[in-house]
Specification:
The chain is of the alpha+beta class and 342 residues long. 34% of the residues lie in helices and 28% in strands. The protein folds into 2 domains: 6-153, Aminopeptidase (3-Layer(aba) Sandwich); 163-327, Gcn5-related N-acetyltransferase (GNAT) (Aminopeptidase, 3-Layer(aba) Sandwich). Strands 1, 2, 3, 4, 5, 6, 7, 8, 9, 10, 11, 12 and 13 form a 13-stranded mixed β-sheet that branches. The longest helix is centred in the N-terminal third of the chain and has 18 residues, at 15-32. It starts with 5 loop residues before the first strand and ends in a 10-residue tail after the last strand. The structure holds coenzyme A. Residues 197, 200, 271-273, 278-284, 306, 310, 312-313, 315-316, 319 line the site of coenzyme A.
């Protein structure tokens, strides 16, 4: 029997029902991945985060009902990314983001038709406003979500992964190299390695645009900020006068989904080793140093993003105990939709 949903725009009075759906989903997500924070098992916490989302500008939301019962909801936010901002490397200029806390539905088969109905309702509005890139975050362990977004035309873009900051063993290369915290005087080296990182991601199978010239000033502002604050850190691995690799870490900054990030978390923004020094243990030595620093400075977890197609990165992170927490998936709609009309 086909279940019939009614879909309409969300109202502030719906948020309590949405919060209840979200906290139930979060409890299920958390039963499969203990890295998720416990706070959002509370319906009250979910209500607060949804109220904040509801009141943000350029946010659209809808609920799906059976009779008068809300069984699913979805929110998406319009974001504009300036071409010269460092974020332009990771996001198209006009993009809809459906955040991890921006959707939830029933824990049964009707989740698929309810999400299709909700996305259909909202996506017509988004494309009519010139938003042809749509992104969604969902729990990596949720196979139903993975399948349903795949069937809505979305493909994996990045993974948000994490682990505890417990130490890892030292490796032999530690005797040959020095790992030290970079200072402002090292900024040219930091930029050189960031550029190598962008070059790596330009190659297949990742195939991200190489926007270094456009975003350099903004990226430089961010790395200088990291160098100038005690709570963040950039570590360099050197052998004699040569810099072999780098890791950039930010403390307490929300680079990842809010409901998938514990407090006292540190974010590993970039990890890069010179191409001719990869596979010798430099990355591992840097990671050990970063984990020990993070642990000693009061962080219990470390998180990071990597491109879903990056085999080199994925093996490295998985072999060093990182678990995928969240998938970001995306869909690009054919722009001819806007003029090729019935
Ligand atoms: C990912 C990256 C930072 C890892 O640094 P690295 O120095 O190559 O890492 P290591 O050498 O410590 O480990 C890499 C592999 O070499 C192996 N290895 C380490 N020491 C070794 C040695 N002495 N001899 C042979 N193999 C060795 C490790 O087992 C490891 O295998 P695994 O990835 O399957 O676990 C690096 O490969 C890199 O810069 N990649 C391109 C950019 C990138 O992908 N960045 C991360 C995305 S966010």
């Amino acid at each position: 029997m086909t279940v019939r949903f009614t879909v309409r725009d969300v109202a502030v009075s719906d948020l309590a029902s949405c919060a209840s759906l979200l906290s139930s989903r979060h409890r299920r997500d958390r039963s499969r991945n203990s890295l998720l924070p416990s706070a959002f098992e509370s319906t009250q916490q979910c209500l607060e985060i949804l109220q904040s989302l509801f009141h943000q500008p350029a946010t659209d939301g809808a609920v799906a009902e059976i009779g008068s019962e809300i069984v699913a909801f979805m929110f998406g936010q319009q974001s504009l990314h300036a071409a010269d901002h460092w974020l332009a490397q990771y996001f198209p200029p006009r993009v809809i983001g459906i955040p991890l806390h921006g959707h939830a539905g029933p824990n049964n088969d009707s989740i698929v038709p309810s999400y299709r109905a909700l996305y259909g309702h909202l996506a017509d509005r988004w494309t009519a406003s010139g938003f042809f890139d749509h992104r969604v975050d969902f729990a990596a362990t949720d196979e139903i979500q993975r399948e349903l977004w795949f069937e809505l035309g979305f493909g994996a873009l990045t993974k948000y992964a994490g682990r505890k900051t417990t130490s890892i063993d030292s490796n032999p290369i530690h005797q040959e190299i020095t790992i030290r915290q970079a200072m402002l005087e090292d900024h040219a080296e930091v930029e050189r390695l960031e550029k190598i990182n962008s070059r790596f991601h330009h190659l297949g199978p990742v195939l991200w645009p190489f926007l270094w010239k456009d975003v350099r000033e903004s990226a430089s502002g961010l790395s200088k900020y990291a160098l100038s604050r005690d709570r963040h850190a950039i570590f360099l691995a050197t052998r004699q006068a040569e810099t072999l690799g780098m890791q950039i870490l930010f403390s307490g900054m929300a680079f990842g989904p809010q409901i998938a990030t514990r407090e006292q978390s540190v974010y590993l923004f970039h990890a890069i080793v010179e191409s001719n020094s990869r596979g010798e243990g430099v990355g591992r030595a840097l990671l050990k140093h970063a984990l020990d620093w993070a642990h000693d400075s009061g962080h219990s977890t470390m998180t990071l993003h990597y491109a879903a197609m990056n085999q080199v990165g994925e093996s490295f992170w998985e072999n060093h105990g990182f678990e995928t927490i969240v998938y970001s998936a995306g869909r690009h709609i054919d722009e001819r939709l806007s003029w090729a009309r019935p």
